[in-house]
Amino acid sequence: MSIIRTDKWLLDSYDDPIKMCEKLIPYFAGATGYEIYQYLTLHGMYRPSKRGLDQVKSLQEREVWKLVEKERRKLQKDWEGPNVPVFIFPSESNNRKLFRSFNRKSGLAFHDKVFLFVSPDNSGTEIKALLTHEYNHVCRLKHYDKKEQDYVLLDTVILEGLAEHAVYEKYGEDYVAHWASNYSEDKLENMWKNDVYPNRNLAKAERKHKEILFGLTKYPDMLGYSVGYYLIGNYSKSSNLMCRDLLAIESNILAQIEK
Asked: Matching Pfam families, A to Z (predicted)?
């Protein structure tokens, strides 16, 4: 598997995304095209708009599919990762949070596939940085000896921090997500000690897991993500190890939790 030529799907069925998502049924066991589309829109996939096909053609003219495939091959080699399919679709242009916090792009990773939702306004480096983050998830899920369904809050926080640290290593601070620099080190240390650490064993199914990770309800915005990036930065500095060296290390070690 490699980059799936979703540009051809889009040119054929842009205005009928549910029908288009039926092509994804083999990758989502037991789901319908409607269910798949509803799920993907929660994570940033487009909803049809008048100028949507122009966006698709713009991405195609810029050879975004070729760009992503070239970068995926590099990452796979560097991180000894699996060869998983990557699906590229336009992002939702009317999503305010996507526009404000993520510069019109988002992604979604599973152990066996990656989705990228991008805009013609995103630069090539921004798109490669997005792939780096999402494909790092795939590699972490492969190399870390723990089943994803058993992940607790600490595992998820480390997963996100490690992925964005990979972006920092490859592209520098200019391409790191805004949430990585939202808080001072003192604030990050307090959030780690007071919010994440006491709840580090929360299962993924528990509502509070999501609230802390994304900074919902009473928690600061993107709390878990920010703390994860902070923890991985600290471990990388103290160990002098690169991202590829951290993929298999246990979460509690990366968080430098004393046993």
From this structure: DUF2268
Phi/psi at 29 (5° precision): -55, 125
C-beta atoms surrounding 186 within 10 Å: 8
Contacts of 241 (CB under 8 A, 6+ apart): 235
Enter the DSSP assignment of 20. Answer: H
Widest pairwise Cα distance in the chain? 57
183 secondary structure, DSSP code:
S
HSE toward the beta carbon, residue 12, CA cutoff 13 A = 10
Instruction: Tell me which amino acid residue 237 is.
Output: K
Taken as a whole, the chain contains a residue count of: 259
DSSP line for 184-236: -HHHHHHHIIIIIGGGTT-BTTSHHHHHHHHT-TTSPTTHHHHHHHHHHHHHH
- As a whole number of angstroms, the distance between CA 180 and CA 173 comes to 9
Helices (H) and strands (E) in the chain, counts: 13, 3
pLDDT tens digits, one per residue of 45-79: 999 988 889 999 999 999 999 999 999 999 999 99
Query: Which residues on adjacent β-strands are paired with residue 113?
Result: 110
DSSP at 145: S
Check: pTM over 0.70? Answer yes or no: yes
Please state, in angstroms and rounded to a whole number, the distance separating the CA atoms of residues 132 and 217: 30
pLDDT beyond 90 at 245:
yes
